[in-house]
Design goal:
By secondary structure, this protein is α/β, with parallel strands linked by helices. The protein has a single domain, classed as Vaccinia Virus protein VP39 (Rossmann fold), CATH 3.40.50. It is built from eight helices and four strands, in the order αααβαβααββαα. The chain has a four-stranded parallel beta sheet with strand order 3-2-1-4. The protein starts with 14 loop residues before the first helix and ends with a helix.
Length: 181
């Protein structure tokens, strides 16, 4: 198990697997579906599924804008979640095939699925990778200190904000921003 990866526990809900279920995916377990159902009961299933769907669409638009309009050629996806539609490398590499992407997550199921997905992408070992790690430690996961980088952290604030003090979040953002200047 790589540094930062947790033990696989299908009996404990995972945010990534709940999100997968909410998007209509198949890579989830009863504990994830039960936890997602509690969310549906609190907010309504229609609102939750609509929100996660819009979040994925926003992610695609943001990555496309960064790659096409700003010329960003490397991305760090922090708290990547399970592979779904319009993954960061798919969107970015549709704009510029040489774009590099590093996916970081602390869920071993997410990392296994991401690595499997990337095995099917020609040239991906050189351009894209998936690593275990904590989303609160992004600065050591930055790609190249000489090239501008787009940092993606879609739908991770709810998890990070609960468990990380504000100075740590600010320090992580500042560290990555400093590496891209």
């Amino acid at each position: 198990m790589a540094s930062g990866e947790g033990a696989f526990r299908p009996d404990i809900p995972s945010t990534a697997r709940m999100y997968d279920y909410m998007l209509g995916g198949k890579d989830n377990y009863p504990a994830d579906r039960e936890a997602a159902q509690r969310t549906f009961d609190a907010v309504t299933e229609e609102v939750v599924r609509g929100t996660v769907s819009q979040n994925r669409k926003f992610l695609g638009r943001a990555v496309r804008y960064l790659a096409a309009e700003l010329g960003i050629r490397q991305f760090l996806d922090i708290g990547t979640g399970l592979p779904s539609m319009n993954n960061v490398h798919e969107v970015a590499q549709s704009v510029a095939t040489g774009t590099r992407v590093v996916y970081v997550d602390n869920d071993p199921v997410v990392i296994a699925h991401a690595r499997d997905m990337l095995n099917d992408v020609p040239g991906s070992p050189a351009r894209s990778s998936a690593r275990g790690g904590q989303c609160r430690e992004p600065s050591r996961r930055c790609l190249s200190g000489t090239t501008r980088m787009g940092a993606v952290s879609a739908a991770t604030c709810r998890a990070t904000c609960r468990s990380s003090p504000v100075p740590t979040r600010r320090a992580g953002r500042a560290a990555c921003a400093a590496r891209t200047r």
